[in-house]
Design brief:
mainly alpha; elongated
């Protein structure tokens, strides 16, 4: 049985993977300031993802 901490870490890891895959589908490989998306925090990934989704809907 996983501890609450382990569950949280697993959820965060899965969320990071999902966001990165979504960004790859949009052909986004870097943040606007040039950092590879694989090297940024979950917070930054969510920000980039939200911005790119909004931009793609325009």
């Amino acid at each position: 049985m996983q501890t609450l901490f382990e569950q949280k870490m697993r959820f965060e890891s899965d969320e990071i993977t999902q966001i990165i895959n979504d960004l790859y589908k949009l052909e986004i490989y870097e943040t606007p300031d040039g950092r590879p998306i694989e090297d940024v925090s979950l917070f930054t990934l969510k920000h980039v993802h939200a911005n790119e989704i909004a931009r793609s809907e325009e």
